[in-house]
Amino acid sequence: MNTLGHLFKLTTFGESHGTAIGGVIDGCPSQMKLDFDFIEQELLRRKTAQSSISSQRKEPDRVEWLSGLLDGVTLGTPIAFMVRNEDCKPEDYEALKDVYRPSHADYTYEQKYGIRDWRGGGRASARTTLPIVVAGAIAKQILKAKGIQVCAEVTSMGDAEQARREGDTVGGVVECRIVGVPAGLGEPMFGKFSAELAHAVFSLPAVKGFEIGDGFALAKMKGSEANDTFINKVGKITTLTNHSGGIQGGITNGNDVVFRVAFKPIPSISQAQQTVNRAGEPCEIAIEGRHDVCALPRAVVLVEALAAMVTLDMKLLAQ
Q1: Helix and strand counts by DSSP (H, E) for the chain
Q2: What is the number of other CB atoms lying within 10 angstroms of the CB of residue 107?
Q3: Which pLDDT tens digit goes with each residue over 197-211?
Q4: Three-class SS state of 43
Q5: Tell me, what's the pLDDT at 218?
């Protein structure tokens, strides 16, 4: 289950401290001139070591294109790429290789596979989300030509600087808006546009909540308050409000698609915590090394990338 999408698909590979991370993009239309500068700009938005609250891991994040391109133009064949891990410090995790870090994937991965990569969380690390940015940057370029744009922002976040001083972490919420989406995208029942978005964003580490439009606030409204009244606006059918977030019956209605994603605090904190080791023995740990205090500033581009990939995939399915 390392592949996302139906027609526009991304398969990713790699671990946090392995040789490289990367992906294979299948279903990208041919004869498209890629803007590599834009891809680099998007990767820069996700890059570490840019502030006091982000991980100080210093990776150059240089993309090596392996297939699917000729002189920067897409061939319609699978686009394979990789980014080498050049600033690995597995020794930072040596003392934790037999310990289950609270709220990390250590225990669950070991239960599933019988083995785990203890070097920075391995496959469960946020490092492995980098290929999503690459695929998302390509999807954004295709959507832009169709008049569709994706933009996200942090709408709430804890006091990250105070948390950093206390050896703690914070979470928050990212809101995303997809502008210019035509009506009619999404499939009935199990391929709803909203379901595809939720499936995509829950692939991100630390995501614990998702809502479309007014989301959970709708549960406190009456139908008369929550309904989006249809109107004719300069010859175009639209709605007076957008409580539904641009999706009704799982299909886009032509309004902006608006959704929010809740991120929990990063579980790697330097405060002392109680846990157990592989033998089930109680022990105390304090996680040192290079970790984000808050995922949100670097997660914004990831939410956008996934939204762009889903939108493009749903548009290709509708053709």
Answers
A1: 7, 17
A2: 17
A3: 999 999 999 999 999
A4: helix
A5: 97
Q: What does the pLDDT look like over 254-300, one tens digit per residue?
A: 999 999 999 999 999 999 999 999 999 999 998 887 788 999 999 99
Cα dihedral across residues 108, 111, 113, 114: positive or negative: positive
Confidence band of 59 (pLDDT split at 50, 70, 90)? confident
Average pLDDT over residues 167-177: 97
Q: Tell me what percent of the residues of the chain surpass a pLDDT of 90.
A: 86
Please name the residues in contact with 286: beta carbons below 8 A apart, sequence gap of 6 or more: 167, 269, 270, 271, 272, 273
Give per-residue burial for 115-137: e unless 16+ CB within 10 Å, then b.
ebbbbbbbbbbbbbbbbbbbbbb
CB contact at 8 A, 24 and 11: yes
Residue 187 CA to residue 123 CA, distance in Å, equals: 31
Dig out the tokens for 303 from the structure. Answer: 């939410």
Nearest Cα to Cα of residue 301 among 61, 134, 97 = 134
Interacting residues of 267 by C-beta distance below 8 A, sequence separation 6+: 101, 102, 103, 104, 169
Residues of 177-204 as b/e, b for ≥16 C-beta within 10 angstroms?
bbeebeeebbbeeeebbbbbbbebbeeb
Average pLDDT of the residues in 229-244: 96
d(CA 291, CA 243): 37
Percentage helix, strand, coil, to 5, in the chain? 30, 25, 45
Closest alpha carbon to 298 in 94, 42, 17: 42
